[in-house]
Every structure is written in structure tokens, then in C-alpha cells.
Design a protein that fits this description.
Number of strands of chain B: 7
Radius of gyration of chain C: 23 Å
CATH architecture of the largest domain in chain C: 3-Layer(bba) Sandwich
Number of domains of chain C: 3
CATH class of the largest domain in chain C: Alpha Beta
Largest sheet of chain C: 5 strands, parallel
Helix content of chain B: 25-40%
Largest interface: B-C, 60 and 60 residues
Shape of chain B: elongated
Strand order of the largest sheet of chain B: 2-1-5-3-4
Distance between the termini of chain B: 63 Å
Number of domains of chain B: 2
CATH topology of the largest domain in chain C: FAD/NAD(P)-binding domain
Strand content of chain B: 5-15%
Strand order of the largest sheet of chain C: 6-2-1-10-18
Oligomer: heterotrimer
Chains: A mainly alpha (137), B alpha+beta (247), C alpha/beta (579)
Distance between the termini of chain C: 64 Å
Structural class of chain B: alpha+beta
Order of helices and strands of chain B: EEHEEEEEHHHHHHHH
CATH superfamily of the largest domain in chain B: Alpha-helical ferredoxin
Radius of gyration of chain B: 21 Å
CATH architecture of the largest domain in chain B: Orthogonal Bundle
Helix content of chain C: 25-40%
Strand content of chain C: 15-25%
CATH superfamily of the largest domain in chain C: FAD/NAD(P)-binding domain
Amino acid sequence: MSDHPVHTAYHPRWIRRRMSTYWWLQRWSYLAFILRELSSIFVAWFVVYLLLLVGAVNQGDAGYREFLQWSASPLVLVFNVMSLGFIVFHAITWFNLAPQAMVVHLGTRRVPGVWVAASNYVAWVLASALVGWVLLM
Amino acid sequence: MPDRIMLQVARYRPEQDAGVSFQEYEVPCPKDWVVLDGLNYVKDRMDGTLSYRWSCRMGICGSCGMTVNGEPKLTCATFLADYAPGPVRVEPLRNFPIIRDLVVEIGDFMRKLVSVKPWIVRAKEKPLSEGEYLQTPQAMEEYTQFSMCINCMLCYAACPIYGLDPHFIGPAAIALAQRYNLDGRDEGSRERMEILSQDEGIWGCTFVGECTKVCPKNVDPAGAIQRYKLNAALDSLKAFLVPWGAR
Amino acid sequence: MTPSHDIVLVGGGGAGLRAAIAIAEANPRLSIAVVSKVYPMRSHTVSAEGGAAGVIRPDDSLDEHAYDTVSGGDWLSDQDAVEAFVKEAPEELLRLEHWGCPWSREPDGRIAVRPFGGMKKMRTWFAADKTGFHMLHTLFQTSLKYTRVVRYDEWFVTTLLVDDGRVQGVVALDVMSGRVEAITARAVILCTGGCGRVFPFTTNANIKNGDGMALAYRAGAPLKDMEFVQYHPTGLPFPGILITEAARSEGGYLINKDGYRYLQDYNLGKPAPQPVFRSMELGPRDRLSQAFMKELEKGRTIDTPYGPVVHLDLRHLGAKVINTKLPFVRELCLKYQNLDPIHELIPVRPVVHYMMGGVHTDINGATPLAGLYAAGEVACVSINGANRLGSNSLPELLVFGARAGRAAAAYASREEEMRPVVLAQAKDERRRLENEFLHKTGGRERLATLRDEMQKTMELSAGIYRSGTELARAVDQLRSLQQRFTTVSVDDQSRTFNTERLAALELSFMLDVAEAIVNSALRREESRGAHQRTDFPARDDQRFLAHSLIYRKPDGACRVDSRPVTISRWPPAERVYGR
């Protein structure tokens, strides 16, 4: 199929509206989306922080204490708390969206989306419990 | 319950206007009138110069999509009374060029529709004498949801990616491609994969999810796209690991 | 450069798209134009719900489908056309399945069928309760494969180009820019659908204004059986939205204000808990609509702000059946009447749904005007006779769309080059459209006023029950409306997407069609199928076992003629339901 094969003599002037740079402020859902995407920065930060922690532990007792002191400074503390918030937000939005991205079949029946999401949460809790047990042992 | 409500309608007449302006009309507001009934009242009795598209007024033809108080809606399925006491702001659908008043240009979508090959692709056609392709109700469920699209384009109006980059193929077109990919009778997944795995195809989507929110037919285009991404990624991996293997 | 093609299709719905595909497959060298005033997926085919009939079960036969159709049409159907139709219907529906149409299935994967009004056996194929939607989208998406099909989306055809007794193209208005252009062709196929908007309460969309019927009528082709207007017994009162017959075939009851299943009083059988073929709520549409009018006379209907209604009761079917078999019905009730059929009664009344009459064609879609073909609701072959059975019109689009396509392709392959004399006609048409619609000043009445009056006249005088005096009055009123139309006021003087100009053009088409309906109805002095005369309550096979043909005279008045019905296999008998 093709478009109109003949050029029209009179072509009315269409208005093409530009999206505002602040389009993401127009709706709550857009804002939530942008925050969700930004949360990946904080995930990256936590990975870096973990690597720094491992590096500090590697340097022995003194290095580790220095690291803890640095972590307790107000700036780092506030930033880490903020990061935790963003990471939880990241995890929750990810798990809730999982059923839309993944359709799971058990035999010929589809597994309801709620279970796909729930299984992610369960895995999260179990993994956290395992890590917690190892740390507190 | 007020019995009248104010409509603020976007106007643009290319032969005399430089840009969009708003005109106010006060219309009756019975409890079962939809926004479209209000517009028809304006056109029939007050101002015949208002242009807009509509046809079936039962949410199946997809003609009457417009932006009502900032949200993309089918005006035949949106009750006026829900906006009482008003005013109700009626504008053309976002992200499309405006031809006139509430009418937008959808040629871009029509071209994208063709580009995803939305038809049954088969190497060899089955002769009619052999009867129908067998397809169980469970097999049909795999794609039925994606076949419900009425091409109303509310999803394109809601998608910020499409607004920022008009080259993006868009939710409805990809959902329709998935409808055929998941239909057991079709053999065209490979052909469609080439078109859709480009930057303007599925990878343009960042899963904002607005398209699924505004879809009046519960097609879930966002879900269609994410699932496709999974398929495409696995496909790439397979092609990488086993480059000589047949599909 | 005037656009020129081999075949022009006016209308891009089920019939138009099927015809386009048929032409492209019959002769891939032909250049095909689909000229539609809306984008094809907006065509009214999209709203059909119930299903499409085609014989596939081993306990069914083509003869039975044909007999049901012929008796349902009160013996006004041309039986040779019906036999061809029932034979080709299953093939066409199967072809559509191969093209991807998602027909509902049995658990083993075979195509499922369900019972439908007026049919003695189960033969109605269905795609949930959105059959027309799925059919149209399948056809549209499949048609995108054929590059020889060029689409003119949102181009409004205003007149046919006729020279020397041959149709040689159309003049169309590009809605977006307002430009008027001739599109020449060797053959033209009209697929513009019916004319429900001539009446006030209709299931039909805004776009169904009888465009093709008026175009053919003005070009000199006769319209056939225009007096047969089908009322669907169950439409929502305010918006006229259709509540599909499937709701009754799944087991719904029609009850009056006393909760009584009133159809048993009208020779339609005895009430049973499960639906029985051709009985009670599965009787033919015309008899059910007439039963409503009788109940109204007896004062047993329910009064609402939108007029009298009866109730459709689905509550006993239960939530599971309603949600799987009738999801769209539930959605419509919730979204447009704010009620839930699982718990509440649905208010319904008869609404105009289908036009049995239309442009007279033969069994291959050819009209008496050389080069002009028609298929679908706009045409009258006639297979539906005096009353159409539900689920016959969707396969009709496919069977006759394909036939008309093939016939037009054969004709266009034979015919010589078009004569340029028609281009002068196009210039005249351009001038007419400017003067009568765009530069019109000093008009007195609004379009909506005239349209409302036309619709009221039609409902009163050409409704379910008609009488000679009412029809004669309607003839006069419509003549007067035609006169008043010449001084109608048009606010919108611009060119770009001027929908008021389109509405004026559509109203002028509708007035012509309305006149054809009332004049044909006046002349048929009997009651048959959907045409019921209170002054002639019986069927009169002696005088009126014939089609009515109506021609337009040069002065605009009508000339009514008749044409015999092809009766080959089944001699006229009494229409019996419920026994």
C-alpha cells in the first residue's frame, strides 16, 4: 500500500507541537518513571560502596575502622539512607513489572501475574534472610 | 448535579489562525452524556465550524480519541458528569501533528503499521480443502489480548518516547507484531524481528508503561514490548552462541 | 495529473477490502484504488458482534442454510443467489481463517459454531462477540500485503462520472485539504454500506448515510427493495447501541413490565428454559420487533426518559457464561448505561440495524449501469429478501465482495481506455461543491434541524408498522425537506477538514435515500417480512411476490417498477417459527 500518489496543490499547514523539556513533571506517572530510572544510579553507587567495603576489609583492621568512620559521617550516611530508599523503590517497581515482561507457563496454563511478582518478593526475602544469617552468625 | 457544563475546546483553523486557541461552549450535562455528545451538541446547535472525528460512538472504531483534561481518552466513553462542575478541556491527541481543531494526522502510524508486516506470513499456504488450522483455545489465549487493538492511538499520545522521538515504531504497532508472532499459524517472527530489533523498534522503549494505562481495550502494549525484548535478547544470544544453527 | 486507476472501490469496509484483495489476486496487473471517507479500520463492519454463518457441521447442509435464508426472507430472496451464497460462505470464512482471523474454537482446536436467530442448525462462526471487528482488522491487515492496492484515506466521493451509459470513475473530495479531484477508472465498485442514519434510533455509526445508494440512484441505476428496513429488537435506548443477538442465543429472555416472556403470545413457540432454534427469543428479528410494537400498544412496555423499552434478562446465565461468551455485552452495558447485566435487567428497544434493500445487482455484483458494481449492505442481490437472518450479512460481504471484485476485474481487463470527456464533468462537480456548500451565504436553517425532522418523519411513517396515509404524508414532508435543503445554512466556509460540508453532503444523500424508502413502501400494498402495513396486513403473493425497483427521474421524482423474484427450488410457503 502506498500513500496518496499525487501531490496535493493545497497542503494545509499542520501544527507540530514540541514536547517541553519538563514533560516529566506533567504527570505523577512520568515523574515516578524518571525516579525509577534514576534509581539505577543509586544501585551503581551501592555496588561501588560494596567494593570500597571489600577493599577496606582487605586492608585489615585499621583500614576497616577508618571506612566505618567515614561511612558514619553525616554526608555519606544521608546519601546511603537515600540510596537505600531508592533501591527499595527500584526493587519494588521491578518486581511489580515482572509479570508484564515474563509470561510463565505451567503445562498449558498460564501462571497468574500475581504469582510471578510474588515469587520475586519471596526470593528477595529468602536471599536477605540468608545474608542476614551469615552476617549475624 | 449541575445540568450544564463548560467545554473549553482547542481551535485551530489553518486558513485563518496562526496557532491554537481555546473557545468556550456551555452544553447540557445529563448523567449519561459523554464528551462526544457535548461536542455534537456544539456542532449541531452552536458552532458548525468545529471539526473532529467520530463514528461508532461505542468504543470499537477508534476514531474519537482526544485529550480530555490532559488525559488521552475516547470521547465516546468518557462521561461529562464525571468532570462536573467542569470546565472540561478538550484538545487533540498529543504527539501527532494537528490538521485542524481536534483532528490530528495519523499517517505516521499508518506507515508504521505496514512496516511490521501485520499479516500471516507462511512459507507455504495451506489449501482450503484441508480445512482450518487447528488452534486450541489455550493457543488462542497467547495472542488474543494483543489482537484487541482498535488503533485509537491513545497509547501513542501517552508515550513520552514517541513524543520525544517520532521515529519510535510505537506501542500499538509492536503489539500487533506480537499478535502475529504469537499466533501459531504465522511463520514470520524472523522477518519481523529484523524490523523490530532496531533502535526505533523495541529498544526505543524504556517501559514507562503509560501506554498500557491508557489503553481502552486492555491490550497491554507495554507487556507485549517487554516480552518481545526478552525474546529478541534470547534470540541474539542463541545466534551468537550457535551462529550456524537453524531457528 | 488526474489520478487514474483500473478499478475504484468506494468504501473500505469488509466488502470493499475483500473485493480489493479479490481483484489483486485475479489480475495482479490491475491498478486498484480504495477510496474511503474514513480510515478503513473505522468502517462500520468493525462494530458487528454476533457472528457469520457458514455450513460446516456434518449434521448440517447447504440446502438447510438456503431454506432458512429463503424462508427468513419471506420468499423475496432470489434463490439462485442464495444457493451460490450458502455454498461460498464456508469457503470464504475458511479463507479468512487462513488469513489469521481468530475464530473461536472448540477444545480440540476446530472452529466452533453457535446457534443464531432464524437458523435451524448451529452454523454461526464467531470470534468471541467481536466478529466484525476481527474480520475487518484481518481483512485490512491482509490487504496491506497487496502493493497494487492504493488507498485514498479520508477522500469523500461526491458523484459518479458517467458517460455514454458507462461509469468511468468518481469525483472525490480530499477531506484534509478540501481539494476536489476526479479519479477515473474502468470500473467502480460501491461498498459504502447501509443507511441507518436516515432513522433516529439506529445501531449504525455516524458514517452510514446511504452514500453509495444515492450515488448509484443519481447516476441512473435503480435501487431495489428499499422499503425493507430491518429493526434489531435489542438496542440500548439512548445511544442505540446494539446488544447482540448472541445474548439471546446464549439463553437471554425478553420480558415486559410484568416480567412475562411476552414472545409466546405472538406465534413464536412456547417458552423453554434453554434456547430452542427458531423459537421464542431465537425467532427472526422482524417478528421480535413487531412483538415489541404490539406490547407497546397494549401498554405493557416500561417507560423511560428515552422512550418505551422492554427488558433483556441475562441474570440466570451467571457470571461465568456472561464473562466468557458475552464479555463485550457486559462492557457495553457498564460503560454506556451504567448497569451490570449479571445483576440487573438491560433496557432494550427495536432500533434500525440493517438495510435489506439497496443498489440492484445481479448475482455477480453488477448493476444495470455498465462499469458499476456494488457489494455488501449497499447492494441488494437479493439474498436477504424481506428480512435478513442474523449472521448472514458478514459472509455476504465476503462472498459478494469477492464476486463483484472478480467481475469488475474481468470487465476492466476487457474495456478500452476511458474517454477524457468525463473530466469536464469533474469541473462541473467542483463548481457545484463550491457554490452549493462553500460559498453559500444567507442560509436559513441549520443542518441538524433538517436532519432531525427527516429522522422523525421516517420513524413515524416508515417505522415497524406503516400505513398508506402516513407514508403519503412522509412523501410530501421529504419533498419539502429536499426543498428546504437548498437553503440550508453552513457555518464552516473553510476547506481544511470541513466536516460540516461533509455532513451537508451526507444529508443530501440521506434525503434521496429516504425518498426512495417511503415511495417504495407506499407502493407495496402488502405486509411481508420487515415491511408491515396496517392497512394491508396480509402477504399478497399474487400481486407482490416481486422486488420493487425505484428509479430517479430527471426532475428528482421517483419512478417505481417491479422485477420478478427468482424462485427455483422452494415455492412460497408460510413462515413458521416455534413449531
